[in-house]
Design brief:
Layout: H1 4-37, E1 51-52, E2 57-66, E3 72-80, H2 87-90, E4 92-98, E5 106-112, E6 124-133, E7 136-144, H3 161-164, E8 168-174, E9 202-210, E10 216-223, E11 235-242, E12 250-256, E13 266-274, E14 277-284, E15 295-301, E16 307-316, E17 319-321, E18 327-329, E19 332-341, E20 344-355, E21 361-369
Antiparallel strand pairs: 1-21, 2-3, 3-4, 4-5, 6-7, 7-8, 9-10, 10-11, 11-12, 13-14, 14-15, 15-16, 17-18, 19-20, 20-21
Length: 372
């Protein structure tokens, strides 16, 4: 009998420890679940070597892939600066390389050049989206043809409607980021076949990602014909899927990144899959999705079709915080493209511009580090 109190004490302490252990494990599970659901992109501060610009060329929209040569290959839009903001008539997709994803980048060659007005993409290639799928390189882009007239000049933007409305989506394929690139005689995504289609007038700005269950998902910009006038409207974003990176792609009559207050709320989505969800960085055209005005914002989706604004949506306002301590306000911060390595975003590539006192646009690309 004299050992009974000691036995009770040991039994009590043993059960107490088990209960505490159980609570601790449950708490850890809840924290783990919370961390899976929480997703945010935090931007670092780029150095000036991450600023890619040129005195004689307007630079826009970079997209990056790593080659088997160990180099980082950036594909970007460019056109002669002396023409003004002539992207819709005179853009070509060029190719630059660097030893790091943060530059400095050096021009190497023109990947997709002018090939004649008789081709659907013969006079303009623009807004690249580069990927490596199963050992091959796929360069998605917008192309167009038209009357070949450059209607703009420095300080004054006049959009050419024949080129703007002839925008279509294509893909070029290569075994190497150095080319040669195989281009196709027909678009990968053409306009809709009936007058009420969401994309009846024009299509552009493709972004593609591989689906975890197999196949490929594309989000693209589309303009319909419901609105009168040469420019049409509304401007929406559509979904398409394919079993192969070169198509055929099946379209879905379901616009995404919508809001009831604006006909053109978003542009330039970049999509990818991470942590069990599809993600998208989107340009907020009017402050439709946050209270900070024009910006880059984050969306997410379980299936790639039904998109919602993320809980922590703001990626960046119209500014760049440089590593030297200078914060630069820009007129536009667009064409977000992530460079992803081993499943983790490493760099955010953006196109930016400012205007001088003569209203002349000066543009550049920047590679912004993503913080872990």
């Amino acid at each position: 009998m004299k050992y009974y109190p000691l036995f009770v004490l040991i039994l009590f302490l043993s059960n107490s420890c088990k209960n505490n252990s159980s609570v601790s494990e449950e708490s850890n599970v809840k924290k783990s679940d919370s961390s899976v659901n929480y997703f945010k992109l935090d931007l670092g501060k780029p150095t000036l070597k991450s600023k890619f610009e040129n005195d004689t060329w307007s630079i826009w929209g970079g997209s990056m892939v790593k080659g088997n040569d160990g180099l980082y290959h950036m594909f970007y839009s460019r056109w002669k600066k002396e023409l003004g903001w002539a992207w819709v008539t005179d853009s070509e997709i060029a190719h630059a390389v660097s030893n790091t994803p943060f530059g400095p980048f050096t021009f190497r060659d023109v990947a997709l050049s002018n090939r004649g007005s008789n081709y659907w993409d013969g006079l303009c290639t623009h807004n690249p989206n580069i990927h490596k799928f199963d050992g091959k390189y796929y360069l998605y882009y917008m192309g167009n043809t038209g009357d070949g007239k450059t209607t703009t000049f420095p300080g004054k933007l006049v959009l050419n409607p024949s080129h703007r409305n002839n925008q279509r989506i294509g893909v070029a394929v290569s075994d190497s980021p150095n080319g040669p690139w195989k281009r196709f005689d027909t678009p990968l995504i053409n306009t809709g076949t009936h007058e009420n289609a969401l994309d009846a007038l024009m299509v552009s700005n493709p972004s593609v990602t591989k689906r975890p269950e197999g196949g490929y998902l594309m989000v693209y910009k589309a303009v319909g014909k419901q609105k009168p006038g040469i420019w049409g409207g509304p401007v929406v974003h559509c979904i398409a899927t394919s079993e192969n990176p070169t198509g055929p792609f099946k379209k879905y009559d379901q616009p995404v990144f919508q809001t009831k207050d604006y006909d053109f709320p978003a542009e330039d989505p970049f999509i990818w899959y991470q942590k069990g969800k599809y993600r998208a960085i989107v340009k907020d055209m009017h402050g439709a999705f946050t209270n900070v005005g024009r910006s880059l914002v984050l969306f997410e989706s379980e299936d790639g079709f039904d998109w919602k604004l993320s809980d922590t949506p703001l990626v960046s306002e119209l500014k760049i915080d440089w590593a030297n301590g200078y914060t630069q306000t820009v007129d536009h911060l667009e064409r977000p493209q992530l460079y992803i390595e081993n499943g983790r975003p490493i760099a955010l590539l953006c196109a930016a511009d400012i205007k001088d006192s003569q209203n002349v646009i000066h543009s550049f690309n920047v590679q912004i580090p993503i913080l872990e």
